[in-house]
Design brief:
Number of domains of chain A: 2
Helix content of chain A: 25-40%
Strand content of chain A: 15-25%
CATH architecture of the largest domain in chain A: Sandwich
CATH class of the largest domain in chain A: Mainly Beta
Largest interface: A-B, 42 and 42 residues
Number of helices of chain A: 7
Number of strands of chain A: 11
Oligomer: homodimer
CATH topology of the largest domain in chain A: Jelly Rolls
Chain lengths: 230, 230
DNA sequence: CGCGTCCTTGACACATATCAAGCCAAGTGG
DNA sequence: CCACTTGGCTTGATATGTGTCAAGGACGCG
């Protein structure tokens, strides 16, 4: 059982639509859990019926082929929702990219709760629609964009979606720290690690970005970057 | 105002969750409309607030870049739902691939109706979740699969999703007619028309498929095809 | 029959993958 | 504090799959 009143994402997660009594009811059904970086919370085709809210950290949704190729099909941040409500098994793996903390619910109880709280379900629908839009834009990137365009698009999207860290400006920060390494950028962009790397090097050489350390990025010319993103 | 009782997809579309009284209410809000092949129902960034159900025909959802490159990010069949409820503009274009017929609703009225009919909204959520899963699997295809794998995956998916035409077996038909031409297959797979074409020719030469006419497909070796699909 | 559109095939170019080495930073143990 | 190791990153050389450009073929339609 979770103490929702102390929850860091209270107000941003789907739970925001609940009043005190409802929140208590849902809280009794869920519990917090830590997930270490690299640990997998949910396997594709998993029987385990669970859904969750992200409290802390960043997780990836991965579709893997039999031969080991991987494509990251989504990234979830604090206050985002994880899982496949309503009986279907998850078609993708959910793995933590950083140390994370999630609030887990049994899917059946969650489904029942959602079914009897329309406002809550509506929130879930909103989120799912937004996710769908994002996924579809990403399909354009994967299907039609060049390596340079992909990397530029990626950096711009990250600069907007990454939760502002302490010390960085909140709105469209120009400097941010990626929660993952080169291979994972490649898996996200549908490229190899080498191509990804070369593009980053080139962009640094051209003065578009600065890369102070492995995971830090400074966008030096946002406009030019947007032009490259296509 | 539509006559829902005579609707061809009554029972399969989201409206299936409604009783007679509710159906009448929704019916008063909607009206049928024909959309000719090639005609665009909805433009990306469109202000027109509408959503719709597909009654007949096949439509594509397209994301286009400034330079003309296009990526099809979804295909909708009869009983499928079109549009972006809850205030956001559609991020993609919706164009008919065949002569089609849709049942159109004003988005605001639709939102209000959905908000007050939880069962209906739940159906919408189910559909959206399914769409999202499908989109994510497609991302794997676009990001990581070879041309041969893409074409094979495409043919298999079409053989399952294409509404069975008269004269064809209903379940996973081996013979079917594509509702679109080579360029559109290419836009769907993130390939050029030439590459798509060559792969089809190769598969025919290898005896995997038969292509009796431009739009007809016969899968001759489903298992081998699945193996190629990766 | 002639015309237009879509499809197919071919030759070639090029972007990205692949293979292989080396580099760098952080950690570990002496 | 300094070798040494390790894992991730970067760079280079080369291969290859897919795109591009161009021509020809098939089909449908007036």
């Amino acid at each position: 059982m979770s103490d929702c009143s102390s929850c860091g994402v209270r107000g941003r997660a789907i739970c925001a639509s609940l009043d005190a009594r409802e929140l208590a009811e849902l809280g009794r059904m869920g519990h917090r859990q830590r997930v270490g970086a690299g640990q997998t919370l949910l396997w594709e085709g998993d029987e385990v019926p669970l859904v969750a809210n992200v409290l802390k950290g960043v997780l990836k949704l991965v579709v893997a082929a039999a031969d080991g190729r991987e494509q990251i099909v989504g990234i979830v941040f604090p206050s985002d929702f994880i899982g496949r409500p309503f009986g279907k098994e998850s078609p993708y793996r959910v793995t933590a990219m950083t140390d994370a903390e999630v609030c887990i619910y049994n899917r059946n109880s969650f489904d029942t709760f959602a079914g009897s709280h329309p406002h809550f379900q509506q929130k879930l629908l909103h989120r799912t629609l937004d996710e769908l839009d994002r996924a579809r834009c990403w399909m354009m990137l994967l299907g039609r964009k060049s390596a340079a365009e992909r990397v530029a698009s990626f950096l711009l999207e990250m600069s907007e979606r990454l939760p502002a860290e302490a010390g960085y400006a909140a709105e469209s920060p120009t400097r941010f720290e990626l929660p993952f390494g080169r291979q994972q950028i490649a898996d996200l962009l549908g490229l190899t690690i080498e191509t990804t790397c070369r593009q980053l090097t080139r962009m640094r050489a051209e003065g578009l970005v600065d890369l102070p350390s492995r995971r830090e990025v400074v966008i030096r010319d946002r406009q030019a970057m947007a032009r490259v993103a296509g």
